[in-house]
């Protein structure tokens, strides 16, 4: 099936918005992928202590697009008095981080600059930072905004539309419009900020139910935010939950980029619908330190490859083979699992870097599991992990990586998964 064009005009005005609600409780589901990769970069990234090793190379001049790497930072809530959590950071620490970016000579870019660079119309310096803030907490306006304004940093607010009431800890639309005058770009964080468990439950009801939920959450928020704040074109996945169906459907609403919670530097070959992002937790200073490590081994694809060493290599034939380089950008990923003694074939699950758990097909008669990716791979290496259980319930896993030979880059707006 041919993918829709990534750029479409704004949708017509939407019907009147219903009752707003307060934010959901703290996420009962783990943030998918946020802490699984990106560990152990350089000495800069070690837990605790001051940030050191400020880059001394000139970072003011634009370079060739393929030489730029962007660290996308994700924040939530701020306070100098409330207890620190993953989602709540000391305001004073946020200031220190913004000051580090300034002293390190890192270029803070807007969402427009990021997309122009990604789409091929803009060159940037070698090391850049994109600042994003999720949900719509009032402290973004009271605590973070004055600091961002002081440094003159552009930033993106990923808002979910049911949390724009001004009640409790939420911001009002007027606050958001004020921030737009000082460099804020608006993006969607869905309508209701459902967590992965809700998405999975709806997906289990069938394709139509899942499509209806995507229309309401991704399409509905696109329209409503456009009405309130003007055109938007970026989305970030609540709870980091992303499926191939979401990736395929987002452009039909008008989105041209979407952001995950998988950490790693962004290069020009990044899949624009699965952009890496460092979620900077209030209780873990090492995440920001890793984000500021621009050593060559800190790219998103290389970080994902580190997962390979966390579990054994497959004890059965797989394709593409471990460390192989394949010419096709849509390879069938398969494993011959039937030879595993006492394997419970119903328990086999496949995970692929950038996609998470995928809807792989198990052929019990042939003893194989396979998955055909719906989108081209532009990052190498590709990390694949299989999880399964024996008939006695004992869990097992195996991980391998393969590379996709990089061909001439396809202009983003001309992308066609079947070409």
3D architecture notes:
- With 419 residues, this protein is α/β, with parallel strands linked by helices.
- The chain has two domains: 43-299, TIM Barrel; 311-405, Immunoglobulin-like.
- It contains nine helices and 19 strands.
- Strands 1, 4, 5, 6, 7 and 10 form a six-stranded parallel beta sheet that branches. Strands 12-19-18-14-15 form a five-stranded mixed beta sheet.
What's the structural blueprint in terms of helices and strands?
Blueprint: E1 69-75, E2 77-79, E3 88-90, H1 91-103, E4 107-108, H2 111-119, E5 127-135, H3 138-151, E6 155-159, H4 173-180, E7 184-188, H5 196-203, H6 207-229, E8 234-236, H7 244-253, E9 257-259, E10 278-279, H8 286-291, H9 300-305, E11 318-319, E12 325-326, E13 333-336, E14 343-352, E15 356-358, E16 361-363, E17 368-371, E18 382-390, E19 395-404
Parallel strand pairs: 1-5, 1-10, 2-3, 4-5, 5-6, 6-7, 8-9, 12-19
Antiparallel strand pairs: 11-13, 13-17, 14-15, 14-18, 16-17, 18-19
Helix pairs in contact: 1-3, 6-7
Which outline best applies? Answer: globular
Which percent range fits the helix content? 10-25%
Mean pLDDT: 80
Whole-number total of structural domains: 2
Radius of gyration: 21 Å
Q: What is the N-to-C succession of helices and strands?
A: EEEHEHEHEHEHHEHEEHHEEEEEEEEE
The unreliable regions are 1-50, 298-311, 407-419
